[in-house]
Amino acid sequence: MLLSLFNLATLGNLRPKNLVVYVFDNGVYSGSRISYPTATSGNTDLAAMAKGAGIENARSIRDFEDFKKAGVDALSTNELSFFVCKVEESLLHREIPRPNTDLAENKYTFVRYLERTEEKAIPFIGRG
User: Fold this and answer.
1) 35-41 own/partner pairs: CB under 8 Å, 24+ apart
2) Which candidate, 39, 40, 25, 45, places its Cα nearest to that of 90?
């Protein structure tokens, strides 16, 4: 989220009513060996930034009960919602085997899957 803050402004301007965004924030950039703190581990508040971009229903969630109440209830509303779910850092991802495909190949595989299941062509830039 920190690397693509322009998305907040886009959402705040478009305000799609059928979208709920959940950002799971552990406060670190986790690499294969070392974790570095992000700005959200300090004073940066993504929910406040979302509100500033025009997303009225934006808030931070810090416990599971709050998630069940606000985060799940938002799925039944017809309103753009943005939730920053504060979670603890986990290192389990370091044990997951890495795929042997790159991001470009994943993109094409995903688009072909959508075309098959939705039975329509999806035009996008970069398709040859």
Assistant:
1) 35/89, 35/91, 38/2, 39/2, 40/2, 40/84
2) 25
Low-confidence ranges of the chain (pLDDT < 50): none
pLDDT at 124: 74
CA neighbor of 81 nearest in space, from 102, 56, 118: 56
Structure tokens at 34: 């070392």
pLDDT given at position 102:
86
Residue type, 5: L
Q: Are 87 and 25 in contact (CB under 8 A)?
A: yes
Residue written as token pair 């688009």: 111
Question: Nearest-CA neighbor of 15 among 73, 75, 61, 81?
Answer: 81
- Nearby residues of 63 by Cβ (< 8 Å), 6 or more positions away: none
- Where residue 96 falls (left for φ over 0; alpha for ψ -120 to 50; beta otherwise) is beta
